[in-house]
Amino acid sequence: MTQPAAKHAAFETLMRQHNTRLYRVARAILRDDAEAEDAVQDAYLQAYRKFHEFRGDSQVGTWLTRIVVNEALMRLRQHRRATVVPLHGTFGPADGSAEVDVEDHKVESPSDSTLRGEVRRILERRIDELPLTFRAVFVMRDVQDMSVQETADALGIPSATVRTRLFRARALLREALQREMDAASSDVFAFDGARCDRIVDNVLQKVDTAGLTETGE
To answer: What is the pTM of this model?
Structure first.
């Protein structure tokens, strides 16, 4: 294999290893699927051209993440889609929270899969509504499972700030999802007009068929 071909093959492997993380990070910042894909592609091109500058003082995944964060923020500014809050800023006092991860090992039925997809779409919509600083940290930590230190290095913020923003992001998401549940709870097991009519009609038909009277004779 020639040197260029070997380099391309190695870089393809690198991209496949980090595609999910970089896309999710870019998507968290840009809130647009197509823009996120473009940002990741441009970040990879930058990394390919600058790979000789990588000194190994951090993990290659962290280095790539920093590149895609910068690319996504640049696109955000260019398109003026939102007021950009610098990711290196601080927010309030450090705080923490205990979280319990519950894994579901059941084989999903088609209805469960559909419900899971709907829940995912609701969660994605609520994540999109988070302020940028919280959204980026939440996706890196809770979605992509990056460590606190790696997230801090990628965003150029202190570890304590990562913890604070993650705590706040989780709180905001819980509040938003609770409102979603409260709004939907009144429609649970909805007893609409068609169902009401069907039950009444079926009972009356059975009464007529059995020849029942009001006295039960």
So the answer is: 0.67
